[in-house]
Amino acid sequence: MDLTVIVPLYNEEESLPELFAWIKRVMDEHHYSYEVIFVNDGSTDHSWDVIEDLSQKNPEVKGIKFRRNYGKSAALYCGFEAAEGDVVITMDADLQDSPDEIPELYKMIMEEKYDLVSGWKKKRYDSKLTKNLPSKLFNATTRLISGIKLHDFNCGLKAYKKDVVKSIEVYGEMHRYIPYLAKNAGFEKIGEKVVIHQARKYGDSKFGINRFVNGYLDLLSLWFLSTFGKKPMHFFGVVGSLMFIIGFIAICIVGWNKLSCIINGTPAPLVTDSPYFHISLTLMIIGTQLFLSGFIGEMVARNSSERNDYKIEKKINL
Predict the structure, then answer these.
(1) What residues contact 304, with CB distance under 8 A and at least 6 apart?
(2) Among 58, 70, 185, 240, whose CB has the most other CB atoms within 10 angstroms?
(3) Coil, strand, or helix at residue 36?
């Protein structure tokens, strides 16, 4: 099968028939073999009824229905598991992503050998205050931390080589960082394509401003796990040791000043009267705790069932 199109959705009953008709027209024009997987993320409207109706009339339509709303990451995870196409396309159900982009995205994966291609909505129709400006800041931070030069990490329109979606695990709210997850899984050829962004035709946006706060927290979590997930001692041990050493040197200086006063016969203040004594003691205690945290984390990592979970691409004579 050439293509799998995955469409996560929540309360998008009005747009689904128009979206599928658009996808079908593009696929038929280019003679692709394909499937469309609609993932109904706990919709409270008649979205599932629409999907069932489309499926009865079109064998290419498949559906997954959640009992409740789990979020976009969960929808993509289940869609990725079910995908059978050589190239997997994801797009939102609100008609803001254009299926006309599919042939070029398919070409970039199959002919130009990209592992992942992310859409870039260079010209947007969203509010500049609530979406555009926070999005630019969010993307700039993600580029800095991940080292991936994309302008729009969170664009719903993306194309993947099949191996990519079968090698990554999307969870929580990590759908924003799928290119970063792919890079961590060993897929280095990641590109982008300028895509058309259309104004929303039906309903309202399902995302609030809190997604940017959660996004930064998720980014920090992903960076830490990808960098120190299997070697926590490299972080906690280094930071803890550094704090302990600084504290130990500082308390030695305080003790030396006290000893110097005694040797010279001058009045010597109590060591505990010095604020540096308490700061030094605090640094040593925190440093010890961090070091022990790294040690415990290292033991947990070494006993993890995934400690030797390496992504092997090919084998010969094995």
Answers:
(1) none
(2) 240
(3) strand
